[in-house]
Amino acid sequence: MPDSTPFPLDHLPLRGAPGAPALLTREGLLDFAALERAVGSLAAALAADWTPGTRIASWLPKNRLACLLPLACARSGLVHVPINPLLKRGQVAHILGDCGAELLVANAARLATLSDEDRSGIATLVDDEQIARCLDRDERLPPSRADPGSLVQLLYTSGSTGRPKGVMLSHANLSLGAIAVAEYLRLVPTDRVLGVLPLSFDYGQSQLLSTWSAGACAVPLDYLAPRDVIRAVEAQGITTLAGVPPLWVQLVEAPWTPGAALSLRRLTNSGGRLPASVVRRMREIFPAAEIHLMYGLTEAFRSTSLDPALLDAHPDSIGTPIPLAEVTVVRPDGVPAEPGEEGELVHSGPLVALGYWNDPGRTALRFRPAPAGSPEGATAVWSGDRVRRDQAGLLYFVGRDDAMIKTSGNRVSPTEVEEAAMASGAVAEAVALGYPDDRLGEAIALVVRGEGPEAALRAWLRRELPNFMQPSAILWRNDLPKSPNGKIDRERLKRELAG
Fold it and tell me: Quick check: 100 and 121 in contact, CB under 8 A?
């Protein structure tokens, strides 16, 4: 088990040997000594202009600055708010307004997409090239002595209704999460970890932090096609690759060179279940690699992982709790479920987040006292996901209690898709639903009542929503079914789609 003593997040880079490679981006290679200097310089520049607790948002590709900001903000006492670069203006404006960011760091093209209203609450907008010059400053801040339980980051994630909400993460959440992942993945200093997932996604950020926790080298990559990933794996001698199910579907269909395929020693999946056929192909293409199937949620970072040695015998399992996580299966009456009995997955321990930013109502619904008898006690995150545990202690995912659509490894709020459709003027009513899809996990069906035309609606949605929120199917109806209280009957629509 890793040491569970919490410490400030920005101590992580010190675990790497000074001359060992730490970060390779298009700007070049940093060893751990240079990484420490750059973080200290950036932290000093931020601390000179901003008071502790200020929210600093970044809307960046995976460049050097984007990778260093989480540690620099932690060191300077600021709260980092990374924004997915795939999001469009509307989603970004909501996040900026909700978190009260006073500084936004982005490239000039992204800054230009924001309206005056979007910028109204932001004191400063900074081009990323301008702030990147701070990385070479002589003045540097040393590692912080912050309270490990203090707020250090807001990660925005969609809820089943409404706009994305900010999950509040502490120094201890992120630092201990990184240590736990490095422990169970058995990362070592000679590993080279390719980062293809967004750094605004807890899974993507975890790769970066756990890599540094192990003293290994992170290689972030913005890619356009599977062949870009394959080229990077071979060119950089990548040993570790993480993905979500839709990416793995694409990667196993792509032509891998022997050099690239045999370079990989460790493959991980989260964000949805991998079809058995995909796992079989991964086994065939990457014979030297361990395959780790995992389950997590942003509110508790990561909960379980399946030992690769058990994959063939238990391909449907999400495994057992990771180090530092306590996972309980609880029946609706609050009693722990027996083996084979379904219940809600409840996660407690030091990886549980602090709650939702500026939203005590939703925090109280999700973050509640741990089940009776919990060794960790205190607050737990009640996931809303149904699981069961077998006699051997392995967990199996059964289903989701909420209305979230999980597609391409992203959690999509139906409300966001519906609001965008309504704003087009092409429809009068809209309902977004998920339906099973082998490639995406779930695809999005948009059921609408309106005049159309469909081409105009789709063009509007492409402008307003990122690709992973685009409906695969748009179904036009003269009327949408209503429940007795006058609301649209979503369950009836789901049944109709399933039929």
Answer: yes
In tens, the pLDDT along 134-189 reads 888 889 999 999 999 999 999 998 654 567 899 999 999 999 999 999 999 999 99
Taking alpha carbons only, the member of 360, 381, 245, 364 closest to residue 302 is 381
Residue 378 one-letter amino acid: A
Give 11's DSSP letter: G
In the three-class reduction of DSSP (H, G, I as helix; E, B as strand; rest coil), residue 288 is classed as coil
Beta strands 410-412 and 151-157 are unpaired
Tell me how far apart the alpha carbons of residues 315 and 291 are, in angstroms, rounded to a whole number: 11
Q: Mind listing the pLDDT tens digit for each residue in 436-447?
A: 898 898 999 999
Between strands 379-389 and 367-369, the pairing is antiparallel
What is d(CA 294, CA 444) in angstroms, rounded to the nearest whole number? 24
Nearest-angstrom CA–CA distance, 443 and 375: 39
The model's pTM is 0.87
For the CA atoms of 376, 380, 382, 386, what is the dihedral angle to 10 degrees?
A: -20
Residue by residue, DSSP assigns 91-159 as HHHHHHHHHT-SEEEE-HHHHHTS-HHHHTT-SEEEEHHHHHGGGG-S--PPPP---TTSEEEEEEE--
Long-range contacts of 432-439 (CB under 8 A, 24+ apart): 432/405, 432/471, 433/405, 433/490, 433/493, 433/494, 433/497, 434/404, 434/405, 434/406, 434/407, 435/497, 435/498, 437/407, 437/472, 438/249, 438/275, 439/245, 439/246, 439/249
Task: Tell me: cis bond preceding 453? Omega within 30 of 0 counts.
Answer: yes
CB 123 within 8 A of CB 103: yes
Rounded-to-integer distance, Cα 99 and Cα 200, Å: 15
For residue 449, the number of C-alpha atoms closer than 13 Å in the C-beta half-sphere is 9
In the numeric block, the tokens 């050099």 are attached to 259
Domains and CATH numbers, the chain: 9-395 (3.40.50.12780), 405-498 (3.30.300.30)
pLDDT confidence of residue 144: 92
Quick: pLDDT tens for 83-126: 999 888 888 999 999 999 999 999 988 998 998 888 887 878 88
Does residue 192 carry a pLDDT above 80?
Answer: yes
Closest CA to 174 of 318, 311, 6: 6
Partners of 30 in beta bridges? 23
Q: What amino acid is encoded at 177 in this protein? A: G
